């Protein structure tokens, strides 16, 4: 479900925008209007203002006058309008007793180490709860908040404190929202993606952006985190000085240097925490181009959930976590945990040889879901895996379109199709490449024309990992097709990716070559799910062990 934040000053039109969004977007389920203003007995001007707001709302909407935003978001379905976060924050500050010392950290409860100890800690805990509830809520949410702080610095300490806390709250909500909108003078402006990693916004800083390509809206462009080239150079020097002939550990040495540059330290830290996210989706063309029926996708989602798929087996062996997200499986899956479907965009993507896979809006939602999945769990290495009958057709089409290659060169046997099906698959890929020709270097239009919600989310995920500076191990042909799109979305993102393995699919080698990536292992695998990437994880760990445990050449006793 889409979740948006609407910011604006007084009388900017933000409330009207939020109500219109709730009214027009025709989502199933009830609409709940959550009024967070505390009662103001005796204030007739305020009462009239509340009444005017009430009259504007359709009678079918349920109004709740409460500051318990977190519990409402946790249990709500349908659509929730939060009016507004700034008043909610005021009540949190009041309840936390912030004003007593204007938040400079006086204790509120001696002796209990697990409890928040200062008013600011209490506020922080409440905001974290809100973010958590926002993320996990099944409802579509539109939250209104005041944009303050553009004027003069408040004269009072409490004024400055409120301004700063509200600014932080708005930023944190924007980080987990699908969209943030700024209203000014009755007009609404879609705000672009964050310029730096969420939680890392620095006031007064001036961010250098990549040149904006004319065909991509700035809102969708990200910037990869910088790589520390000084650390890389030092790592190279120190590795050359270890007790071995220079260069004799080959690729292990290169990987150690690569990791050091990404982590900003030598020796690099052991990538102990690896997180696999499997992106599942069905594809309109699947029934004609695969060796297996489309129903396998839903069945395999359940298998991954039950911990019995190939990726679970490898993850258990290598100490990695696995989660799966259904972006576009063509089935309802009531028997899997709710979070599996938290980013579901639709049931099956359109058949790409004759129609668009997704609407532009669905692309945007799926890309932003992928970006958000990056920051959900703290890991040292991220892996994207794929699952979806027919997805090698989409992958071949994307790779063929971006690289300008003929369908025959990029079409492979996927799950193991026979010659006749390969011939037909090749004509489907050719038609898709042809349809995509006008948009081949426009990542969002490409995803809409011949992608799919799973591909869009994977592209957002891979771009987001680079934006947050988290190393990635790429899997096979499907993930690498999404990586090509991610590189268009966030130019330079590939600096944060290693190619885990080489898939048997012919388009994979071409795409890796284009990205300048060399696969770590070649085990003739063609499964997807993230298995090829995970097969390379022990090599990364070997590279770190080499860096941390070896003696220096200079210490040899000759
Ligand atoms: O990632 C790869 O390189 C790869 C190569 C061949 C097949 N697959 C997996 O097999 C399914 C797609 O194959 P197909 O023949 O149905 O297009 C899908 O579930 C993928 O995860 C994946
Ligand atoms: C059984 C099966 C498992 C898979 N896992 C990823 N793609 C798959 C395709 C099939 C057919």
Structure in a nutshell:
The chain has 558 residues and is of the alpha/beta class.
Structure explained in plain terms:
The active site is at residue 529. It is an enzyme of class 2 (transferase). It comes from Phytoactinopolyspora mesophila. This is Nicotinate-nucleotide--dimethylbenzimidazole phosphoribosyltransferase. Pathway: Nucleoside biosynthesis; alpha-ribazole biosynthesis; alpha-ribazole from 5,6-dimethylbenzimidazole: step 1/2. This protein has 558 residues and is α/β, with parallel strands linked by helices. It folds into two domains: 3-101 and 119-191, P-loop containing nucleotide triphosphate hydrolases (Rossmann fold, 3-Layer(aba) Sandwich); 271-400 and 440-539, Nicotinate-nucleotide-dimethylbenzimidazole phosphoribosyltransferase (CobT), large domain (Rossmann fold, 3-Layer(aba) Sandwich), CATH 3.40.50.10210. 44% of the residues lie in helices and 12% in strands. It has helices at 14-24, 44-56, 69-75, 85-96, 119-136, 157-176, 229-240, 250-263, 286-289, 295-305, 310-318, 360-374, 391-403, 407-410, 419-436, 443-450, 453-468, 477-489, 506-515, 531-535, 537-549, and strands at residues 3-8, 31-35, 62-65, 79-83, 140-146, 179-184, 187-190, 274-281, 320-328, 381-387, 472-474, 497-499. Strands 3-2-4-5-1-6-7 form a seven-stranded mixed beta sheet, sandwiched between helices. α18 links the parallel β11 and β12. α5 packs parallel to α6 (157-176), α12 (360-374) packs across α17 (453-468) and α16 runs antiparallel to α18 (477-489). The longest helix has 20 residues, at 157-176. The radius of gyration is 26 Å and the shape is globular. The N and C termini lie far apart (68 Å). Bound molecules: nicotinate mononucleotide (NCN) and 5,6-dimethylbenzimidazole. Residues 290-291, 386-393, 414-415, 475-478, 503, 505, 508, 526-529 line the site of nicotinate mononucleotide.
């Amino acid at each position: 479900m889409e979740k948006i934040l609407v910011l604006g000053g007084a009388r900017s039109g933000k409330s009207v925008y939020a109500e219109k969004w709730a009214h027009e977007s025709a989502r199933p389920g009830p609409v709940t209007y959550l009024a967070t203003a505390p009662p103001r007995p005796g204030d007739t001007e305020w009462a009239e203002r509340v009444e005017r707001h009430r009259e504007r709302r359709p009678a079918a909407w349920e109004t709740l006058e409460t500051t318990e935003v977190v519990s409402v978001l946790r249990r709500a379905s349908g659509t929730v309008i939060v009016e507004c976060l700034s008043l909610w924050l005021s009540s949190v500050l009041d309840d936390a007793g912030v004003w007593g010392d204007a938040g400079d950290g006086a204790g509120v409860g001696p002796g209990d180490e697990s409890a928040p100890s200062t008013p600011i800690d209490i506020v922080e805990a409440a905001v974290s709860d809100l973010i958590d509830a926002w993320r996990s809520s099944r409802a579509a949410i539109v939250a209104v908040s005041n944009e303050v702080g553009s004027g003069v610095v408040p004269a009072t300490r409490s004024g400055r404190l409120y301004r700063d806390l509200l600014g932080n709250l708005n930023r944190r909500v924007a980080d987990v929202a699908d969209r943030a909108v700024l209203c000014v003078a009755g007009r609404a402006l879609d705000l672009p993606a964050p310029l730096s990693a969420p939680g890392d916004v620095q006031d007064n800083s001036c961010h250098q952006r990549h040149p904006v390509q004319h065909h991509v809206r700035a809102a969708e462009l990200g910037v990869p985190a910088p790589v520390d080239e000084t650390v890389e150079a030092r790592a190279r020097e120190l590795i050359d000085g270890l007790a071995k002939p220079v260069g004799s550990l080959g690729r292990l040495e290169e990987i150690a240097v690569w990791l050091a540059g990404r982590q900003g330290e030598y020796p690099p830290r052991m990538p102990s925490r690896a997180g696999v996210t499997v992106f599942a989706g069905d594809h309109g063309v699947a029934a004609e181009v695969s060796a297996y029926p489309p129903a396998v996708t839903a069945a395999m989602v359940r298998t991954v959930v039950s911990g019995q798929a190939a990726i679970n087996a490898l993850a258990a062996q290598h100490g990695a976590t696995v989660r799966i997200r259904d972006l576009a499986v063509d089935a309802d899956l009531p028997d899997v945990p709710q979070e599996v479907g938290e980013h579901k965009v639709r049931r099956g993507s359109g058949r790409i040889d004759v129609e668009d896979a997704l609407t532009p809006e669905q692309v945007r939602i799926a890309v932003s879901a992928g970006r958000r999945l990056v920051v959900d769990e703290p890991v040292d290495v991220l892996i994207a895996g794929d699952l979806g009958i027919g997805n090698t057709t989409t992958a071949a089409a994307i790779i063929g379109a971006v690289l300008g290659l003929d369908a025959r060169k990029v079409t492979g046997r996927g799950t193991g199709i026979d010659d006749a099906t390969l011939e037909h698959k090749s004509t489907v890929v050719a038609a898709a490449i042809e349809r995509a020709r006008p948009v081949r270097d426009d990542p969002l239009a490409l995803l809409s024309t011949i992608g799919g919600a799973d591909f869009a989310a994977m592209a957002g995920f891979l771009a987001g990992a680079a934006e947050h500076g988290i190393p990635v191990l790429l899997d096979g042909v499907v993930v690498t097709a999404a990586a090509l799109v991610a590189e268009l979305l966030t130019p330079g993102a590939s600096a944060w990716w290693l190619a885990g393995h080489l898939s048997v699919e012919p388009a994979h080698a071409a795409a890796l070559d284009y990205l300048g990536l060399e696969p770590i292992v070649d085990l003739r695998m063609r499964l997807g799910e993230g298995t090829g990437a995970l097969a390379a994880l022990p090599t990364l760990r070997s590279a770190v062990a080499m860096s941390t445990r070896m003696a220096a050449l200079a210490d040899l006793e000759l």
